[in-house]
Inverse folding.
């Protein structure tokens, strides 16, 4: 231990910090936004690909994903989904305000933990063939995507989903954190 | 060969770092498009290391809040809450080798047992009723392995939480059986005879969640050398700082109910001769026992209206034994506090744009006993003080969101059986300047009621006397916070703060009779600035840098406060290396005075290595943590109960823990 005492000094700590700062910040120049928001966006895209729309509501020319969020970082991440392919159609991401109509959307992403707002919006979408995605467990949406134990997971409310004519691949059900009936 | 200059070596290291950066990292990081290409199964395995969801929530929080996650606790190999707090911006830690103390924004008071911060466990206040102590060392109620996250909210918090939230609120959130599935066994060994074992079991069913934990730990303690003072010889004491602690925790949640039962007991010897006791006498020691039984209920009673309610019983027993003479009998402090708390809180979002929180709390401290006596036979009693007290509080807070503006206003009214009423408001005006920048203007007040130890303790006027005339401490605070999140994921925060502390309570020696006494020491002001920068990467890298500069002075005379450093700076970096994660912590604390002397600025480093991917040991996690890596001689200012003006911190200390999950 004496060897350690004499060989490791504050100068070594200072050097270690210089080394670490270059290592962290240097790599950061090229690194893109790689956080929970991106992961959530990727998860939403993946899940949508496994959903089967009712015949009357299948997208024809484009797939419109309407996003309601005040989270600017999440909005940026969702923007990267633009023109991704969904069931042979290009995805168009559109941000909608809280008072907007959502009837022209194939899927609605409700990024709000305000139960008042979520409940209000889900009530207006109940009779429509629109896939609803929430961000907290039992939000009332058909699918909820949320962080759990440092992982991004999803719940499926299968009765809500099927009540409006949707279905989802059994494989996805197996991967769900919870399936609510 | 000509020896290479330090500059050459530094340049070589920079070049090496750039090389590693250029070669290894870009392909390892998850860029947006590569994530989009991953399959669902792969996405489910990606670990979130950024706290960006919190970052968004924190934009709207009426405070410059910090959160430490379970992943960070594991990566750093922390075992004590004080270690977690030491990594949080605005906070610094000191110790008298038996208890750890927390200072916030440059302020720490002598002989203050963490009464100026409020400690919550799952939202329940756990500062004890006798000393109002927030236990952050091995006397803490909860094993750190059971903690899901630690939140720290600096600034006054009495408008919601009541007493003790003068400098900040620490909320420890326990984990669940779902997060701790299966059975985990920890085995640990460390320097100076440290060894211990902990067993945890978690179960999660459809409607039930169960978490059980038991741990026992002991250490022989380090040897301590103290110099002579005032002609009194001290020297080196070995084997007098032995420590032993046990904890038991049960958390059971079913339907809308959660039961939390926890018990902890810690015994530790003193080697620092407090209160003029004999140096190196093993009979001088302290024992703390704390317990809590809490039942909480949470339900959404109507759309947009959820109510949390809870009833908790708490207890704390403190025993201090003091050897004043090698040939005489030991004197003993016995303090017993028991109390119950009933509280309810409603969150109402039925009015569009508003989040209304209102609630009440009643606390009945039905047993507040302090005894001080010399062990017999015959027993000689010096103090036998028995009391009870109660207080009630009611509060309301509204968060009103209007476009990019957010107004958060709240007020709490408390009534104390001891000193009457107090009203504490808070106002926060939050403006989102653009997509990534938030400005917060925060105003608030808080208070701390004097505790029964400060008010009524005397040891027969041998070394300490009572002061029933103490007034509550009050604080008025104003703060401006600017937060910015860059497109590359960096979080920046700057806080400019100003506080006025009125009727501060501190211990001092009476110049007339030489006895220790708690007094309202007058008013003080704190001005300062905190700057924080941090980022987490998906590949596990994490970097956090912070610095707090503060000027703490008495209002009358402008004298700087003791125990209070002007500058506290810290930097933490976590770097994945293969299957391991290495974490380097560096700490800097500026010069401090103790009233009798001055301690210069100090810097030190800690290192942790951890892995949970060992091919030969599936399900195992190995953690090696070395505190005070370079074995620096570090000191903390001592309060007047010690003969010395400064006490040495522990030297280098290594600890190895192996955890298996079955």
């Amino acid at each position: 231990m004496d060897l350690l005492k004499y060989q490791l000094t504050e100068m070594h700590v200072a050097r270690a910090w210089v080394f670490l700062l270059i290592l962290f910040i240097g790599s950061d120049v090229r690194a893109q936004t790689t956080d929970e928001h991106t992961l959530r966006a990727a998860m939403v895209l993946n899940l949508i690909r496994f959903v089967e729309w009712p015949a009357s509501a299948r997208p024809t020319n484009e797939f419109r994903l309407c996003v309601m969020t005040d989270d600017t970082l999440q909005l940026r991440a969702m923007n990267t989904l633009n023109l991704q392919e969904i069931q042979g159609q290009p995805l168009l991401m559109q941000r909608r305000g809280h008072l907007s109509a959502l009837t022209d959307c194939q899927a609605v992403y409700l990024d709000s933990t305000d139960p008042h707002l979520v409940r209000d919006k889900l009530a207006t979408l109940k009779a429509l063939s629109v896939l609803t995605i929430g961000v907290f467990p039992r939000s009332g949406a058909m699918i909820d995507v949320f962080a759990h134990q440092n992982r991004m997971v999803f719940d499926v409310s299968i009765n809500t989903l099927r009540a409006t004519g949707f279905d989802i691949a059994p494989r996805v059900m197996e991967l769900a954190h919870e399936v609510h009936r | 060969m000509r020896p290479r200059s330090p500059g050459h070596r530094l340049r070589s290291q920079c070049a090496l770092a750039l090389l590693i950066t250029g070669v290894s990292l870009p392909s390892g990081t998850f860029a947006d498009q590569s994530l989009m290409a991953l399959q669902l199964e792969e996405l489910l395995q990606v670990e979130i290391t950024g706290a960006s969801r919190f970052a968004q929530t924190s934009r709207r929080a009426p405070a410059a809040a910090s959160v430490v996650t379970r992943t960070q606790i594991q990566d750093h190999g922390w075992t004590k809450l004080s270690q977690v707090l030491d990594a949080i911006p605005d906070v610094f830690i000191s110790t008298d080798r038996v208890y750890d103390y927390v200072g916030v924004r440059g302020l720490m008071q002598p002989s203050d047992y963490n009464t100026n911060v409020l400690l919550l466990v799952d939202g329940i206040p756990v500062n004890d009723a006798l000393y109002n102590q927030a236990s952050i060392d091995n006397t803490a109620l909860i094993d750190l392995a059971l903690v899901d996250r630690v939140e720290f909210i600096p600034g006054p918090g009495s408008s919601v939480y009541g007493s003790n939230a003068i400098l900040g609120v620490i909320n420890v959130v326990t984990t669940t059986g779902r997060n701790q599935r299966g059975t985990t066994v920890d085995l640990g060994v460390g320097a100076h005879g440290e060894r211990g074992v902990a067993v945890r079991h978690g179960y999660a069913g459809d409607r039930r969640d169960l978490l059980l934990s038991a741990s026992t730990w002991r250490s022989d303690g380090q040897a301590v050398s103290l110099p002579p003072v005032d002609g009194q010889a001290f020297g080196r004491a070995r084997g007098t700082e032995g420590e032993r602690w046990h904890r038991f925790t049960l958390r059971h949640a079913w339907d809308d109910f959660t039961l939390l039962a926890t018990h902890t007991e810690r015994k530790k010897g003193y080697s620092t001769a407090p209160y003029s006791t004999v140096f190196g006498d093993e009979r001088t020691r302290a024992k703390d026992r704390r317990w809590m039984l809490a039942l909480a209920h949470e339900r959404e009673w109507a759309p947009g209206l959820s109510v949390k309610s809870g009833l908790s019983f708490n207890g704390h027993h403190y025993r201090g034994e003091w050897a004043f003479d090698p040939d005489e009998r030991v004197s003993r402090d016995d303090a017993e506090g028991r109390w119950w708390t009933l509280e309810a809180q409603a969150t109402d979002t039925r009015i569009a744009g508003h989040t209304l929180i209102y609630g009440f709390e009643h606390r009945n401290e039905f047993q507040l006993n302090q005894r001080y006596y010399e062990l017999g036979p015959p027993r000689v009693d010096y103090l036998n003080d028995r009391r009870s007290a109660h207080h009630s509080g009611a509060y309301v807070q509204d968060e009103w969101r209007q476009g990019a503006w957010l107004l958060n206003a709240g007020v709490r009214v408390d009534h104390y059986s001891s000193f009457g009423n107090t009203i504490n408001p808070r106002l926060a005006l939050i403006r989102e300047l653009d997509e990534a920048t938030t400005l917060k203007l925060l105003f608030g007040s808080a208070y701390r009621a004097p505790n029964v130890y400060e008010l009524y303790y005397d040891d027969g006027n041998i070394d300490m006397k009572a002061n029933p005339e103490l007034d509550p401490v009050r604080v008025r605070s104003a703060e401006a916070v600017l937060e910015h999140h860059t497109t590359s994921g960096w979080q920046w925060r700057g806080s400019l703060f100003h506080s006025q502390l009125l009727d501060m309570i501190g211990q001092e020696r009476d110049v007339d009779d030489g006895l220790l006494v708690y007094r309202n020491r007058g008013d003080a002001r704190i001005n300062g600035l905190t700057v924080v920068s941090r980022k987490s990467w998906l590949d596990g890298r994490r970097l956090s840098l912070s610095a707090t500069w503060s000027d703490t002075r008495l209002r009358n005379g402008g004298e700087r406060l003791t125990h209070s450093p002007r500058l506290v700076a810290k930097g933490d970096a976590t770097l994945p290396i293969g299957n391991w994660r290495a974490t380097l912590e560096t700490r800097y604390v500026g010069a401090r005075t103790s009233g009798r002397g001055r301690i210069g600025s100090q810097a030190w480093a800690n290192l942790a290595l951890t892995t949970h991917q060992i091919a030969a040991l599936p399900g195992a996690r190995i953690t090696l943590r070395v505190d005070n890596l370079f074995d620096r001689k570090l000191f903390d200012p001592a309060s007047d109960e010690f003969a010395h003006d400064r006490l040495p911190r522990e030297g280098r200390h290594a600890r190895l823990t192996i955890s298996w999950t079955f």
Remarks:
- The first strand of chain B starts at residue 66 and ends at 69.
